[in-house]
Amino acid sequence: VSVGHPAAGCGLSVFPVPAADALTVRLEGPGDDLRGVDVYSATGQIVARGRAQGPGRNGTLTVDVSALPQGVYQLVVHTANGDRAERVVVQR
């Protein structure tokens, strides 16, 4: 997965990790805009997705991972200033 680099000072929180049913992604940076989240399997397939709605996008999205098997996934967060990848764990 190829990603850009968010602007300096852009904080990103992903919780809970490990996750069981849902992941919450929170963008904590001035002037940035959380546009969406993709969750990739180890084989590079998108297995879950979350998208911000409308022009009033805020800095928090929740992604349902309840249907995913336990394992390690790549989370790609799409923002107005670029993309950022984080490793997440789904555990039951």
Secondary structure topology:
Blueprint: E1 11-15, E2 22-28, E3 34-40, E4 46-51, E5 60-64, E6 71-79, E7 82-90
Antiparallel strand pairs: 1-2, 2-5, 3-4, 3-6, 6-7
Radius of gyration: 13 Å
How many distinct helices? 0
Alpha-beta classification: mainly beta
Measured distance between first and last alpha carbons: 26 Å
Query: What sequence of helices (H) and strands (E) makes up the elements?
Result: EEEEEEE
Counting DSSP E segments of at least 2 residues, the number of strands comes to 7
Largest sheet: 4 strands, antiparallel
Strand percentage = over 45%
Low-pLDDT segments: 1-9
The outline comes out as globular
- Write down the overall mean pLDDT: 83
Helical residues, percent: under 10%
Strand order of the largest sheet: 4-3-6-7
3D architecture notes:
This protein has about 90 residues and is mostly beta strands. It is built from no helices and 7 strands. A hairpin with a 5-residue loop joins strand 3 and strand 4. It starts with 10 loop residues before the first strand and ends with a strand.
In short:
The protein is mainly beta.
Offer a few descriptive terms.
mainly beta, 3-stranded antiparallel beta sheet, disordered N terminus, globular
